[in-house]
Design a protein that fits this description.
Blueprint lengths: L10 H10 L7 H66 L6 H66 L2 H24 L1
Helix pairs in contact: 2-3, 2-4, 3-4
Length: 192
């Protein structure tokens, strides 16, 4: 006796086959859902790409901030070293048997170097603050793209359920979520 193979179609396959065998040769409900799903998938892919790009930009800015903070820290260490040298030169001025003018010149030189280093350190710290601010702005932008992508994915899921259950209210819910997601995506685009 030969083995017979049975194929059990999935609900999606059944819905597609049902659409192909409808009375007029087309099922406008299924066709509308299919077109909507394709459009939403495209929008979702675009929103997802932009979300990833803004997240990467935020990470790069945060990395630049960390590198710049290290440079600022190095400058503050140099400032501290110059302060120590200045203090030692000030002590040396008062020591007997040394040339006080040489050490007074050192004190003046270290004071000047310290001020230059302090300005560089403060400028680097301001740059760190600006980089961190830009990173936070990019993360905010990323969250907008992520919300838009998530809404499109939810709309696609609702559309699939609407197709399987043939419930019009689910189709309208999918449209509503899709419009919301598209609106958030447009807002994210305009923010960029």
């Amino acid at each position: 006796m030969a083995e017979e193979e049975f194929e059990v179609p999935s609900p999606h396959e059944h819905a597609v086959e049902h659409g192909a065998h409808s009375a007029h040769g087309s099922d406008s409900f299924a066709s509308g859902i299919a077109v909507m799903t394709a459009v939403l998938a495209t929008l979702g892919a675009m929103f997802g790409y932009e979300g990833g790009a803004t997240q990467n930009e935020a990470a790069l800015l945060k990395n630049d901030a960390a590198i710049t903070m290290t440079k600022a820290s190095d400058k503050w260490n140099q400032y501290q070293a110059d302060s120590n040298k200045q203090h030692l030169a000030e002590l040396a001025v008062a020591l007997p048997g040394v040339d006080p003018e040489k050490y007074r010149a050192d004190v003046t030189r270290y004071k000047t170097e310290k001020e230059d280093v302090k300005k560089e350190s403060e400028a680097l710290e301001a740059e760190v603050a600006e980089l961190n601010k830009k990173s936070e702005e990019q993360m905010h932008h990323h969250h907008l793209w992520a919300r838009a992508t998530t809404a499109e994915q939810i709309a696609i899921s609702l559309a699939a359920i609407a197709l399987l259950t043939r419930k019009k209210w689910l189709q309208y819910a999918a449209y509503g979520v899709a419009v919301f997601g598209t609106g958030v995506g447009i807002f994210a685009f305009l923010q960029g």
